[in-house]
Amino acid sequence: MKLRIYFSDSWHDSSSSCPWALCDDADVVVASGDSLLANLPKADDYIAIIAASRLSCVNVTMPSQSRRRWEAALPFVAEEFSLSDPEENHVVPGIVQRGGQRSLFIVDKQWLKNIVFACIAANIPLRRAIPEMLLPYLPSETWVLIREGERGFIRTNTSSGTSLDLSDEQHPPLSLSLALKAASPAVTPNKIQVRFSQQEADAHADLPQWADLPCELVLGKPWDWRSEPIPNEALNLLWGSLAPKAKLHEWLLKFRPLALILIAVLFIETLGTNIEWAILSHEKSTVQKEMVQTFRKTFGVTTTVVKPNLQMQRNIAALRHSAGLADDADFLPLLDQTSVAVSSFPSSQITTLHYESGRLDLDIKIATASEIHALQQRLQSKALSVTLGEIRNIDNAAETRLSIQIGGTS
Length: 410
What we know:
Helix content: 25-40%
Shape: elongated
CATH class of the largest domain: Alpha Beta
Radius of gyration: 43 Å
CATH architecture of the largest domain: 2-Layer Sandwich
Oligomer: single chain
Number of strands: 18
Strand content: 25-35%
CATH topology of the largest domain: Nucleotidyltransferase, domain 5
Structural class: alpha+beta
Strand order of the largest sheet: 3-2-1-4-8
Number of domains: 4
Number of helices: 9
């Protein structure tokens, strides 16, 4: 649910009442009334509607400063259009218009601050303050004039408008006449749509008979700020120092495209990893079955196979021994390969040597721990399996135990 709160000239502080309208997501008014801020109904979103009579809108060519410096520069740009001192004005830039100009909306800074502070005191999380003059729907090549009694306002394009002064049925407002004269041929409207307030429309108000206008007047549907749709891109007067802190979900919306890309990349990476793992697992299973089949063809189909590679290695060693041949896992061949690698480290010293069942254990003392790791890599490059024990620093040297077997990297 959205709660629209209307702030008019008569609002001064939290003791002033405000017209309000509670709307659903389709901008259908569910309830409305006139209450103090502290007594307003609860809603999911709170929107301030700032009366057109509280705003001035001027079109200017923007200075060359970067957008980050606009907040300080804009009050001085708008100074010639305002009777107030620059520091008393809160100036908000609109979008760039045809011809390179930009609309500036000027509102009394302290008055707008009072609204923000009063809403905070009433526990109202105000996120937006929308100019009333930018609410009416704007048909193509048409200005929209809202008339409420003798006063009103007019919307001239997507990001500008002006409040209207006194008028009657025969004489148009002076501000309307000046706006039409100042408009270039490219932006002069073909017609002006007049929308009366709901009360006047109910009284069957007729179009005013204003002579000498360069365009025709047409009657539009009744005007009601309570139900007029508010586009998401509508200008927010809570800008600069008055801008509310961004909510978490607003940050998430900003980063949503990046998050979706990251999720897609992660999904593809995970899918690729799982496919690769499945392929490798299948290849491992196939190799394992081939090893079992080869072992049974060689040593008999009734042989129990638990670790085919290790059993094959042991059986081949037994066959070599029965034929009077040495095996690579025997003491002397294993010691020979180990001694060649150890001899490349002159500072090394073997303190203990033990051999059993194809495994050679040696305690070695060497200059540094990095040399121990280098020796391990040297042995592994010779298709030896090397298990490294705890490295201890003793007497300015490093000491550890190496367990060496035939069989590659371990």
